[in-house]
Amino acid sequence: MTDEKATPQEEVQNGPKSIDRKHFLHLAAAAATLPAIALTTAATAGATGATTEHTKPSSLEPTPECDDGDDPTPPQTEGPYFKPNSPARRSLLEPGIHGTVLTVTGRIFAARTCLPLERVLLDFWQCDASGVYDNRGYRLRGHQYTNPNGDFSLTTIWPGLYPGRTRHIHVKVQAPYQRILTTQLYFPGEPRNPRDPIFDSRLLMEISNNPDGTRNGAFDFVLNV
Ligand SMILES: [Fe+2]
Protein backbone atom coordinates (compact mmCIF):
# COMPACT_ATOMS: atom_id res chain seq x y z
CA MET A 1 0.00 0.00 0.00
CA THR A 2 1.12 3.54 -0.58
CA ASP A 3 -0.04 6.85 0.75
CA GLU A 4 -0.61 8.20 -2.72
CA LYS A 5 -3.85 10.04 -3.00
CA ALA A 6 -6.23 8.60 -5.53
CA THR A 7 -7.93 10.92 -7.92
CA PRO A 8 -11.72 10.71 -7.96
CA GLN A 9 -11.47 8.88 -11.29
CA GLU A 10 -9.07 6.34 -9.80
CA GLU A 11 -11.35 5.82 -6.86
CA VAL A 12 -14.24 5.05 -9.17
CA GLN A 13 -12.10 2.55 -11.04
CA ASN A 14 -10.22 1.00 -8.18
CA GLY A 15 -12.32 1.62 -5.13
CA PRO A 16 -11.50 3.88 -2.20
CA LYS A 17 -7.86 3.69 -1.15
CA SER A 18 -8.88 4.06 2.46
CA ILE A 19 -10.57 0.66 2.66
CA ASP A 20 -8.79 -1.35 5.29
CA ARG A 21 -7.48 -4.85 4.95
CA LYS A 22 -10.11 -6.63 7.02
CA HIS A 23 -13.00 -5.02 5.21
CA PHE A 24 -11.36 -5.66 1.87
CA LEU A 25 -10.93 -9.33 2.74
CA HIS A 26 -14.56 -9.61 3.71
CA LEU A 27 -15.49 -8.14 0.35
CA ALA A 28 -13.12 -10.49 -1.42
CA ALA A 29 -14.65 -13.48 0.33
CA ALA A 30 -18.11 -12.30 -0.57
CA ALA A 31 -16.98 -11.84 -4.17
CA ALA A 32 -16.13 -15.54 -4.27
CA THR A 33 -19.86 -16.16 -4.49
CA LEU A 34 -20.23 -13.88 -7.50
CA PRO A 35 -19.55 -16.28 -10.43
CA ALA A 36 -22.98 -17.87 -10.08
CA ILE A 37 -24.58 -14.45 -10.21
CA ALA A 38 -22.42 -13.50 -13.20
CA LEU A 39 -23.44 -16.67 -15.04
CA THR A 40 -27.08 -15.89 -14.42
CA THR A 41 -26.61 -12.39 -15.74
CA ALA A 42 -24.79 -13.66 -18.83
CA ALA A 43 -27.54 -16.17 -19.52
CA THR A 44 -30.12 -13.45 -19.18
CA ALA A 45 -28.19 -11.20 -21.56
CA GLY A 46 -28.02 -14.02 -24.12
CA ALA A 47 -31.72 -14.68 -23.82
CA THR A 48 -32.58 -11.07 -24.52
CA GLY A 49 -30.22 -10.85 -27.48
CA ALA A 50 -27.98 -8.31 -25.78
CA THR A 51 -24.35 -8.28 -26.87
CA THR A 52 -21.42 -7.60 -24.62
CA GLU A 53 -18.65 -8.28 -27.12
CA HIS A 54 -17.58 -4.69 -27.53
CA THR A 55 -19.12 -3.29 -24.40
CA LYS A 56 -16.66 -2.48 -21.65
CA PRO A 57 -18.16 -3.54 -18.32
CA SER A 58 -18.56 -0.58 -16.05
CA SER A 59 -18.83 -2.39 -12.73
CA LEU A 60 -15.95 -4.85 -12.60
CA GLU A 61 -14.71 -5.83 -9.19
CA PRO A 62 -11.34 -4.21 -8.45
CA THR A 63 -8.36 -6.46 -8.99
CA PRO A 64 -7.35 -7.75 -5.56
CA GLU A 65 -4.14 -6.26 -4.26
CA CYS A 66 -3.41 -9.00 -1.82
CA ASP A 67 0.17 -9.72 -2.67
CA ASP A 68 1.72 -6.57 -1.28
CA GLY A 69 2.84 -8.53 1.74
CA ASP A 70 2.44 -5.58 4.08
CA ASP A 71 0.01 -6.81 6.63
CA PRO A 72 -0.16 -10.47 7.58
CA THR A 73 -1.14 -10.80 11.21
CA PRO A 74 2.01 -9.98 13.19
CA PRO A 75 3.67 -12.59 15.42
CA GLN A 76 4.13 -12.15 19.14
CA THR A 77 6.10 -13.85 21.86
CA GLU A 78 4.72 -17.17 23.06
CA GLY A 79 5.31 -16.31 26.71
CA PRO A 80 6.03 -18.87 29.42
CA TYR A 81 2.66 -20.61 29.72
CA PHE A 82 1.99 -22.49 26.49
CA LYS A 83 1.29 -26.21 26.88
CA PRO A 84 1.05 -28.63 23.94
CA ASN A 85 -1.73 -31.18 23.55
CA SER A 86 -4.62 -28.96 24.58
CA PRO A 87 -8.09 -30.53 24.27
CA ALA A 88 -10.13 -30.06 21.11
CA ARG A 89 -12.98 -27.73 22.05
CA ARG A 90 -14.57 -24.50 20.91
CA SER A 91 -15.79 -23.61 24.40
CA LEU A 92 -13.41 -23.30 27.32
CA LEU A 93 -16.28 -22.95 29.78
CA GLU A 94 -16.48 -25.67 32.39
CA PRO A 95 -17.46 -25.99 36.05
CA GLY A 96 -15.31 -23.79 38.23
CA ILE A 97 -14.64 -21.22 35.52
CA HIS A 98 -16.05 -17.85 36.51
CA GLY A 99 -16.13 -14.56 34.68
CA THR A 100 -17.80 -12.63 31.91
CA VAL A 101 -18.48 -14.91 28.97
CA LEU A 102 -16.65 -13.81 25.84
CA THR A 103 -17.15 -15.29 22.39
CA VAL A 104 -14.38 -14.56 19.92
CA THR A 105 -15.16 -15.12 16.27
CA GLY A 106 -13.41 -14.43 13.02
CA ARG A 107 -11.99 -15.86 9.85
CA ILE A 108 -8.58 -16.82 8.59
CA PHE A 109 -7.40 -15.67 5.19
CA ALA A 110 -4.39 -16.38 3.00
CA ALA A 111 -2.48 -13.20 2.27
CA ARG A 112 -1.55 -14.21 -1.27
CA THR A 113 -5.00 -15.18 -2.47
CA CYS A 114 -7.34 -13.32 -0.11
CA LEU A 115 -9.28 -16.56 0.20
CA PRO A 116 -10.44 -18.06 3.50
CA LEU A 117 -8.48 -21.04 4.76
CA GLU A 118 -10.12 -24.20 6.07
CA ARG A 119 -8.64 -26.77 8.46
CA VAL A 120 -6.45 -24.14 10.07
CA LEU A 121 -5.51 -25.14 13.61
CA LEU A 122 -6.04 -22.52 16.31
CA ASP A 123 -4.72 -23.29 19.78
CA PHE A 124 -5.88 -20.78 22.42
CA TRP A 125 -4.68 -20.32 25.99
CA GLN A 126 -5.29 -17.60 28.54
CA CYS A 127 -5.36 -16.80 32.25
CA ASP A 128 -8.53 -16.91 34.33
CA ALA A 129 -10.45 -13.91 35.64
CA SER A 130 -7.92 -13.57 38.45
CA GLY A 131 -4.93 -13.52 36.11
CA VAL A 132 -3.82 -17.09 36.82
CA TYR A 133 -2.83 -19.68 34.20
CA ASP A 134 -3.53 -23.36 34.74
CA ASN A 135 -0.11 -24.91 34.24
CA ARG A 136 -1.02 -28.28 35.70
CA GLY A 137 -4.12 -29.04 33.68
CA TYR A 138 -5.84 -27.55 30.65
CA ARG A 139 -8.33 -25.08 32.06
CA LEU A 140 -8.82 -22.22 29.62
CA ARG A 141 -6.83 -24.03 26.96
CA GLY A 142 -8.21 -25.59 23.79
CA HIS A 143 -7.74 -26.04 20.09
CA GLN A 144 -10.05 -26.12 17.09
CA TYR A 145 -10.00 -25.99 13.29
CA THR A 146 -11.55 -23.53 10.88
CA ASN A 147 -14.50 -24.70 8.81
CA PRO A 148 -14.61 -24.56 4.97
CA ASN A 149 -15.45 -20.84 5.19
CA GLY A 150 -12.36 -20.14 7.27
CA ASP A 151 -14.45 -19.43 10.37
CA PHE A 152 -13.50 -20.06 13.96
CA SER A 153 -15.44 -19.45 17.17
CA LEU A 154 -14.10 -19.54 20.70
CA THR A 155 -16.26 -19.27 23.80
CA THR A 156 -14.26 -18.34 26.85
CA ILE A 157 -14.22 -15.76 29.63
CA TRP A 158 -12.90 -12.22 29.81
CA PRO A 159 -9.30 -12.80 30.89
CA GLY A 160 -7.98 -11.15 34.02
CA LEU A 161 -4.79 -9.18 34.50
CA TYR A 162 -1.43 -10.22 35.88
CA PRO A 163 1.62 -8.12 36.67
CA GLY A 164 3.47 -6.63 33.75
CA ARG A 165 0.92 -7.32 31.04
CA THR A 166 -2.22 -5.83 29.62
CA ARG A 167 -5.29 -8.00 29.00
CA HIS A 168 -4.70 -10.57 26.25
CA ILE A 169 -5.41 -14.01 24.84
CA HIS A 170 -2.64 -16.21 23.40
CA VAL A 171 -3.09 -18.17 20.21
CA LYS A 172 -1.12 -20.31 17.81
CA VAL A 173 -2.44 -20.47 14.26
CA GLN A 174 -1.27 -23.05 11.74
CA ALA A 175 -2.55 -23.67 8.23
CA PRO A 176 -1.97 -27.25 7.02
CA TYR A 177 1.72 -27.88 6.32
CA GLN A 178 2.59 -24.24 7.02
CA ARG A 179 4.64 -22.53 9.70
CA ILE A 180 2.94 -21.71 12.98
CA LEU A 181 1.95 -18.13 13.69
CA THR A 182 2.22 -17.48 17.44
CA THR A 183 0.53 -14.28 18.50
CA GLN A 184 -1.81 -12.61 21.03
CA LEU A 185 -5.15 -10.83 20.83
CA TYR A 186 -5.83 -7.59 22.69
CA PHE A 187 -8.76 -5.60 24.03
CA PRO A 188 -9.42 -1.98 23.07
CA GLY A 189 -9.53 0.73 25.72
CA GLU A 190 -7.43 -1.11 28.27
CA PRO A 191 -5.45 1.32 30.46
CA ARG A 192 -2.43 -0.97 30.37
CA ASN A 193 -2.29 -1.22 26.57
CA PRO A 194 0.02 1.77 26.06
CA ARG A 195 2.32 0.66 28.90
CA ASP A 196 2.75 -2.96 27.81
CA PRO A 197 5.87 -3.23 25.60
CA ILE A 198 4.48 -6.37 23.94
CA PHE A 199 1.12 -4.80 23.05
CA ASP A 200 0.48 -4.25 19.34
CA SER A 201 -2.57 -2.30 18.21
CA ARG A 202 -2.73 -4.37 15.00
CA LEU A 203 -3.90 -7.24 17.20
CA LEU A 204 -6.83 -5.45 18.80
CA MET A 205 -10.16 -7.25 18.68
CA GLU A 206 -13.42 -5.44 18.05
CA ILE A 207 -15.43 -5.86 21.23
CA SER A 208 -19.20 -5.56 21.56
CA ASN A 209 -21.55 -6.07 24.50
CA ASN A 210 -24.69 -8.19 24.49
CA PRO A 211 -27.87 -7.39 26.45
CA ASP A 212 -27.36 -10.46 28.63
CA GLY A 213 -23.99 -9.20 29.85
CA THR A 214 -21.86 -11.46 27.66
CA ARG A 215 -19.42 -9.96 25.21
CA ASN A 216 -18.24 -10.64 21.69
CA GLY A 217 -14.78 -10.24 20.23
CA ALA A 218 -14.03 -10.19 16.52
CA PHE A 219 -10.70 -10.67 14.82
CA ASP A 220 -9.63 -11.91 11.38
CA PHE A 221 -6.20 -13.45 10.90
CA VAL A 222 -4.20 -13.06 7.70
CA LEU A 223 -1.59 -15.77 7.27
CA ASN A 224 1.49 -15.31 5.14
CA VAL A 225 0.67 -18.24 2.89
FE1 LIG B 1 -0.12 -14.27 28.89
Topology:
Blueprint lengths: L7 H7 L6 H11 L2 H14 L53 E10 L10 E5 L15 E5 L5 E7 L10 E7 L6 E6 L19 E4 L5 E4 L2 E3 L2
InterPro entries: Intradiol_dOase_C (IPR000627), Intradiol_dOase_core (IPR015889), Intradiol_RC_Dioxygenase (IPR050770), TAT_signal (IPR006311)
GO molecular function, one term: oxidoreductase activity, acting on single donors with incorporation of molecular oxygen, incorporation of two atoms of oxygen
Protein name: Protocatechuate 3,4-dioxygenase beta subunit
What does this structure look like?
- This protein has helices at 8-14, 21-31, 34-47; strands at 101-110, 121-125, 141-145, 151-157, 168-174, 181-186, 206-209, 215-218, 221-223.
- The strands form 2 sheets. Strands 1, 4, 7, 8 and 9 form a 5-stranded mixed beta sheet that branches.
- Residues 1-56 have low confidence and may be disordered.
- It has 2 domains: 1-65, no CATH class; 101-223, Aromatic compound dioxygenase (Protocatechuate 3,4-Dioxygenase, subunit A).
- By secondary structure, the protein is of the alpha+beta class.
- A hairpin with a 5-residue loop joins strand 7 and strand 8 (215-218).
- It starts with 7 loop residues before the first helix and ends with a strand.
- The chain contains 3 helices and 9 strands.
- Fe (ii) ion is lined by residues 79, 81, 165, 168, 170.
- Residues 47-92 are annotated as: Disordered.
The amount of helix comes to 10-25%
Q: Given this structure, which CATH class of the largest domain is correct?
A: Mainly Beta
Number of self-contained structural domains: 2
Radius of gyration: 21 Å
Gross morphology? globular
How many distinct beta strands? 9
Mean pLDDT, to the nearest integer, reads 80
Amount of beta strand: 15-25%
Order of helices and strands: HHHEEEEEEEEE
- CATH homologous superfamily grouping of the largest domain: Aromatic compound dioxygenase
Sheet with most strands: 5 strands, mixed
Span between N and C termini? 18 Å
CATH topology of the largest domain: Protocatechuate 3,4-Dioxygenase, subunit A
Number of helical segments with 4 or more residues: 3
Structural class: alpha+beta
Bound compounds? fe (ii) ion
Q: Which runs of at least 5 residues are low in confidence (pLDDT < 50)? A: 1-56
- The CATH architecture of the largest domain can be named as Sandwich
